[in-house]
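Take the subject:
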Amino acid sequence: MRNLPVKWGLSLPNRGALFGLTDVDDLIQTAVMAEQTGIFESVWFGDSLIHKPRLEAIVMLSAVATHTKKVRLGTICMASFPVRHPVLLAIQWASLDQISQGRSLLGVCIGGGHEGELRAFGIQKSERVGRMREGIELLRQIWCDQPTSFRGKYYTLENYHIVPKPVQKPPPIWIAVSPDREQVGDKIVDQAMRRVGLLADGYITMGVTADEMAKRLRVIEESAAEAGRDLSNFEVAIHGMVNINDDRALAYRQSKDYFNHYYGPSYPPESLIKVWLAHGTPKDCANLIQQWLDMGITTPVLRFTAADQAGQVRRFVDEVLPLLRIGRRLG
C-alpha cells in the first residue's frame, strides 16, 4: 500500500463558515478552483453535529458535487457516525454518490465522545466502537443489491430492500483514528489499528512521527493479512494543517487563532503542532510535508489554516509543490 501514487486532497473549513473564516460561496468556489488546478484529486469536509457545529458535511459535499466533475468527495472524519442511524446514512450517502456519479468517499470515526451530543441521540460513550463496527458492516450490506437482514447489538433489520443504491459497488469507507500512544498505551493504539486493517478501505491519521506511523502501518498490514484482505489499493491519508506565509511567526499566530476557533484554546498541544502544522515559507512547509510523504502517506489532505483559502491553494501549487521530491505523482 506504500507504492501508490500521491493523491492530493483539500480539506475545506465548513466549521469556519460559522465564525467568519469563510462562507458558503467561498467554500464552493475554492473546491472548484482545487479541481481546476489539476493537482487536487479530492475535496473533503469535517463533520460534527452538536459538539462542534458547522455546515453539515453531506449537504456541503452534495453542493460541491454539482459544481465539480472529477474530484472525489469525502468526509475527513465523520465524528457523528456513531449517532447517525446507518439506514438514514446509507440513503443519504447513496444519494450523494448518485449526484456525484460515483465520487463519494466516506471517512468515519468514533468521534470525541462529547456527553451532550451523545445524550441528545440516546447513545452511550461506551457504545461508540461497537456502533462504528456495526454501522460499517450494515452500510455495506444495505448498498448491495440483495435485501438486507442484519441482527446486531445496536441495529436490526429483517429483509429490507433499501434504495437508492450508490453508483460505486460499494463506496469506500475509510477509518480516521489517531490515538496518542503516550496517553492511551500500546494496547489501545494496536486495537484501533487492527480495526482499520480489518474493516477499512483506507486510513486517515493526524500528525505523527515517522516511528509512530511505521508502528501503526505494521499492525494494519498484519491484521489485514490475517483476515486475507488485499491492501494493494489501500490509501493512507493525513489530515495535515498548512499555513503558507513568508512571515513564519505570523503563520503560527494565524494557525493558533484558527485552532482556538475550531478546537478550543488548549488544543492542539505543541507536541502535535510540531508534526501536524506545516507553516512558514514555502520551503518551511515543504520540509514537513515531505516528511509526511516519506513516512508512507499516499493521500495528503491539506487544511489551510488561513482566511484566504484560494490564495493558499495557489501558493501551494505554485511555490510548495515544486519543492517536493514526489509532489507531482498523480494517480
Observations:
- The chain has twelve helices and eleven strands.
- Confidence is low (pLDDT under 50) at residues 327-331.
- The two ends are 13 Å apart (CA to CA).
- The longest strand covers residues 235-244.
